């Protein structure tokens, strides 16, 4: 078998890849050994900053196929025709741990999608949970600090985790979800995905709707108990990666069915709770699930670093017919992601193959910067307006305008009749079977009983009491029992 010649980065043939060049036999290494210097220097630069959250993840390519007509709600072209397929890339992730952390842990999972549409890339950056811990982005850095490693001990600390939640009653719903049976998915294939936020869709007539996305796994939801998770972490810390990779390699392609809940825009103002509050779900009895299509994952990336580590998703990558709602959390995220990418990957991260549009071309006046590799015609102007053939704006807003009123200031959310932080946590608890309730109480008490401050424990107990009397009573009894042991 003839093999290609080994070369330096500049393409010159390498004579010896086993022995460094020395001054005489047994002498010191000489500076002119370009191959050695380049090899060591490049190795030192292999790591880039990891994602500040969701550092550990797995990716796959696939497609989305429209199965149902939703043109009454959105003019998004990739959703416009039944049967239409759009290529996509997904990155699943855990949230709290750093790169190298284990997969089968109790943590939300990221569900980040990039649809390579003919109208540009559409990113839907969701989780496997329909709600979130907080509802204002100003709390996000504090929240994440409390969940990741403590700056002194270098470990995740129950004290910090529960101290934050003690001060965030709005987290009770998501905490109930996370500590329940779905808190440790068996694999990425066996969990649902949610857009979580409310988004805005606009149809061809300019009518606006608010929507929530639900991707239901066709593999069935499967989860692990705390003990099963711990066992699996010991056997294969990369269990989710192993499962996804092997399933696709074997030709067993995982799929999800996409449904949306659709609220006519005019109903938002008088809905009984704030429909843009990320800590709440919309009951299906108010807004039933409507099927849109299915997502199939059928190709593994060839190179994890190039395609998964360097993938970059931003909730502000919209396409015509889809836009943001006034959800404050979403608004904060519209800034945070592209900013993170500019730091983590550089200003030209959108030119990397996994991030660049595949079904359309980029045409703008953004130029240069570190690692610029996109070529422009030599006659192309780099300013606009111009008298030449450069690209021009469409004068067509991507989505319908959002009505606003009032004064600039730091406001709490608009008041709706039923905005309290606890009722949906209580509803979720009451939906659980007796066995599920037992496991939920055990998981919460196991963590909360490790907290060193009584006042932090009491504040958290008050949240569970406020959600449901029985829930509060049982968590409290179990925490007291465990602390007496
Ligand atoms: C990743 C910020 C809330 C889902 C990230 C990253 C940042 C960030 C900076 C790292 C991006 C990168 O380096 O590529 C925020 C802020 C939030 C917020 C400021 C609240 C204001 C949420 C919510 C969800 C979510 C509510 C889900 C509904 C994700 C996912 C990733 C991620 C899935 C990983 C994306 C990937 O796979 O590359 N977030 N986040 N985040 N976030 Fe958030």
From TrEMBL:
Q: What is this protein called?
A: Catalase
Q: Where is the Catalase core domain?
A: 7-392
List keywords of the entry alphabetically: Heme, Hydrogen peroxide, Iron, Metal-binding, Oxidoreductase, Peroxidase
- Pfam families with a match to the protein in the record: Catalase (PF00199), Catalase-rel (PF06628)
Q: What is its EC number?
A: 1.11.1.6
Instruction: Please name the taxonomic classification of the source.
Output: Bacteria, Bacillati, Actinomycetota, Actinomycetes, Kitasatosporales
Tell me the segments the record calls region Disordered: 1-20
Which catalytic reaction applies to this protein? 2 H2O2 = O2 + 2 H2O
Looking up InterPro entries in the UniProt record yields: Catalase (IPR018028), Catalase_3 (IPR040333), Catalase_AS (IPR024708), Catalase_clade1/3 (IPR024711), Catalase_core (IPR011614), Catalase_haem_BS (IPR002226), Catalase_immune_responsive (IPR010582), Catalase_sf (IPR020835)
Broadest EC class? oxidoreductase
- Family of this protein: Belongs to the catalase family.
